[in-house]
C-alpha cells in the first residue's frame, strides 16, 4: 500500500478535470501518477490510459519497470509496444499505453479516459499537439488529463497551463518541492543546496521558475497578446513572409493599427501569384501600398521590385537600423551642428524591429486575433529570442539561423510581426517632424528602391 505525503493527497482529493503539477525532483510526482493510472484502469471496463514521457526510452526508464512491479502478475505487459492490459472490476480489460512524445501522432483519432504528460516542459510543440490530438481524444469519454514536471525555461508549458488555470475552473494547479517528500533524506537536500548552483537548486529541487535574464519577451505578456484589446486601430497594414525558394508557405498578415486581425497561409505560390494576391488584398481591405512590407529574400525580391507594386516596402533584415534617436552627446547650437544628429544603436534592421516588438508585447500594446497552430508557433518562436549584444554599442538579437536550430524550423510566423515593426519605427521617426528626420527617412526609401532596381532577384 502506497503512503501518500500531504502534497500528494491534495492532488488525489481534487475533483479537477485537468491537474497541473509542478514538482521538484524525487518529490513523488511520478509514483502518484502511476497510482492514478492503475486506479483509472481498474475502475471501468475497456478504458484507455495514455502516458507520455519526453522519449520512448525515457518512458521505459521512468515508468515501465515500476508499473510491471506494481501490478505484479495482474497486468499483461507487451514489452515491444509498451502496453499494459489490466483486468477491471466490471470484466474485460483496460489498456495503459506507455510511450514517448515523438510518437504523439500515433494517438490521433484515439479515445482516452486519462492522459498523463510527464516532464511536460521538455515537450516541444505541446500546445499544438494538445489542441489537435489529445484534447479531442477526451471529448467522447469526458476524460481527464494530468500534466506534471519540473519547470524548464526552454518550453514553459507548465507556466502556460497555470495561466489558463487562473480563468478555467476545469483546471487546478499544485506545487510541491523535494522537501515535501518525507522519504527523501533532508541531509541529501541540504547537500544539493550547497553543491548546486542557486538557480539549479531553485528549479530542480524547489520547482520554481527561473526567468531568463536575456529573454526579450515576457512569457505572460506574450500569451496575453492573444487576449489583449486595443482601442487605437489607426491605419491598415499588410506584411508578407515569403519562402526563400517558393516551396514553403507564404504568410499574409493583416493589421489594423497594432491589432493583427487576419492571417492567411498559402503553399507554393510563385512570384506572379503572390503579386496578384497582394494587389487583391490591398484593394479589398483598402491597404495603401506604402503600408505593405514583403520579406525581400529569394522569391520575395522579385515581388518587392515588381513594377506592379510600386510603393511597397522590400524588407531585408540585414539592412542597417533606421536612425530614430537623437544623439545625447552632440547638442545643437554648441559648436557641433545646428540640429541634433540622429543615431542608431542596433546591429541591423532586424534587431531594431525585434527590440521594438518586445517593447510593444511586454507593455501590452499589441494584440492578435489569430488562433490555433499559428498562435502556438508565434509564441514558441518569440519566446526564444535573446538579447545577445556584445558590448560594442550595437544592440543585437538571436539570429534567425540560431532560432531555426533551437526550434527545429524557420520562425516564419513571427517574422510577419517583426516586419510590422518597421512601420512603427518609420512612424516614430517621421512623427518627430524635424528636417534631419525627414532627410534620413527619404534616404532610407531611396536605399530600398536602389537595391531592388539594381539587384532584382538577388538573395540575401
Explain what this protein looks like in three dimensions.
This protein is of the alpha/beta class and 460 residues long. It folds into two domains: 6-210, 3-Layer(aba) Sandwich (Rossmann fold); 223-454, Nucleotidyltransferase, domain 5 (2-Layer Sandwich), CATH 3.30.420.240. The protein is 38% helix and 17% strand. The strands form three sheets. The protein has an eight-stranded mixed sheet with strand order 3-4-5-2-6-7-1-8, sandwiched between helices. A six-stranded mixed sheet has the order 13-12-9-10-11-16, with helices on both faces.
**E-strand count:** 16
Q: Major sheet: size, sense and barrel closure?
A: 8 strands, mixed
Helicity, as a percent range = 25-40%
Question: Could you give the order of strands across the largest sheet?
Answer: 3-4-5-2-6-7-1-8
Query: Can you tell me the residue ranges where pLDDT is under 50 for at least 5 consecutive residues?
Result: 326-343, 431-437
Report the end-to-end length measured between terminal Cα atoms: 65 Å
The CATH class of the largest domain is identified as Alpha Beta
How many structural domains does the protein architecture include? 2
Number of helices: 15
Instruction: Give the strand content.
Output: 15-25%
In terms of structural class, how would the helical and strand content be classed? alpha/beta
Round the mean pLDDT to the nearest integer and report it: 85
Approximate shape: elongated
CATH architecture of the largest domain: 2-Layer Sandwich
Radius of gyration: 27 Å
Which topology of the largest domain does CATH recognise? Answer: Nucleotidyltransferase, domain 5
Amino acid at each position: 500500500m502506497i503512503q501518500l505525503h500531504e502534497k500528494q493527497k491534495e492532488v488525489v482529493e481534487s475533483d479537477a478535470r485537468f491537474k497541473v503539477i509542478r514538482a521538484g525532483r524525487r518529490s513523488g510526482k511520478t509514483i502518484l501518477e502511476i497510482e492514478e493510472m492503475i486506479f483509472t484502469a481498474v475502475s471501468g471496463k475497456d478504458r484507455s490510459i495514455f502516458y507520455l514521457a519526453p522519449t520512448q526510452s525515457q518512458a521505459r526508464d521512468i515508468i515501465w519497470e515500476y508499473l510491471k512491479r506494481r501490478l505484479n502478475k495482474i497486468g499483461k505487459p507487451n514489452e515491444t509496444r509498451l502496453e499494459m492490459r489490466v483486468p477491471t472490476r466490471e470484466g474485460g480489460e483496460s489498456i495503459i499505453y506507455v510511450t514517448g512524445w515523438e510518437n504523439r501522432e500515433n494517438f490521433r483519432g484515439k479515445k482516452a479516459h486519462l492522459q498523463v504528460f510527464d516532464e511536460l516542459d521538455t515537450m516541444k510543440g505541446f500546445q499544438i499537439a494538445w489542441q489537435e490530438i489529445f484534447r479531442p481524444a477526451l471529448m467522447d469519454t469526458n476524460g481527464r488529463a494530468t500534466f506534471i514536471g519540473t519547470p524548464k525555461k526552454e518550453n514553459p508549458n507548465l507556466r502556460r497551463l497555470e495561466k489558463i488555470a487562473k480563468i478555467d475552473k476545469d483546471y487546478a494547479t499544485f506545487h510541491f518541492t523535494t522537501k515535501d517528500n518525507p522519504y527523501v533524506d533532508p541531509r541529501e537536500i541540504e547537500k544539493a543546496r550547497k553543491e548546486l548552483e542557486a538557480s539549479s537548486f531553485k528549479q530542480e529541487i524547489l520547482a520554481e521558475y527561473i526567468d531568463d535574464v536575456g529573454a526579450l519577451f515576457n512569457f505572460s505578456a506574450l500569451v496575453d497578446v492573444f487576449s489583449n484589446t486595443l482601442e487605437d486601430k489607426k491605419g491598415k497594414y499588410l506584411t508578407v513572409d515569403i519562402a526563400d525558394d517558393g516551396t514553403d508557405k507564404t504568410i499574409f498578415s493583416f493589421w489594423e493599427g497594432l491589432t493583427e486581425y487576419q492571417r492567411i497561409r498559402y503553399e507554393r505560390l510563385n512570384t506572379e501569384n503572390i503579386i496578384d494576391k497582394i494587389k487583391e488584398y490591398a484593394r479589398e481591405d483598402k491597404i495603401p501600398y506604402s503600408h505593405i512590407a514583403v520579406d525581400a529574400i529569394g522569391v520575395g525580391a522579385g515581388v518587392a521590385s515588381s513594377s506592379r507594386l510600386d510603393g511597397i516596402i522590400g524588407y531585408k533584415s540585414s539592412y542597417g537600423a533606421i536612425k530614430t534617436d537623437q544623439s545625447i552627446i552632440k547638442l545643437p547650437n554648441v559648436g557641433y551642428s545646428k540640429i541634433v544628429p540622429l543615431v542608431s544603436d542596433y546591429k541591423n534592421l532586424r534587431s531594431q524591429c525585434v527590440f521594438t516588438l518586445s517593447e510593444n508585447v511586454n507593455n501590452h500594446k499589441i494584440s492578435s486575433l489569430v488562433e490555433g497552430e499559428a498562435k502556438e508557433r508565434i509564441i514558441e518562436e518569440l519566446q526564444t529570442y535573446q538579447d545577445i549584444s556584445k558590448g560594442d554599442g550595437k544592440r543585437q538579437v538571436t539570429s534567425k539561423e540560431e532560432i531555426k536550430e533551437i526550434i527545429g524550423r524557420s520562425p516564419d510566423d513571427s517574422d510577419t510581426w517583426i516586419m510590422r515593426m518597421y512601420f512603427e519605427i518609420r512612424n516614430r521617426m517621421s512623427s518627430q517632424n524635424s528636417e534631419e528626420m525627414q532627410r534620413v527617412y527619404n534616404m532610407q526609401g531611396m536605399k530600398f528602391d536602389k537595391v531592388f532596381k539594381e539587384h532584382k532577384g538577388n538573395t540575401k
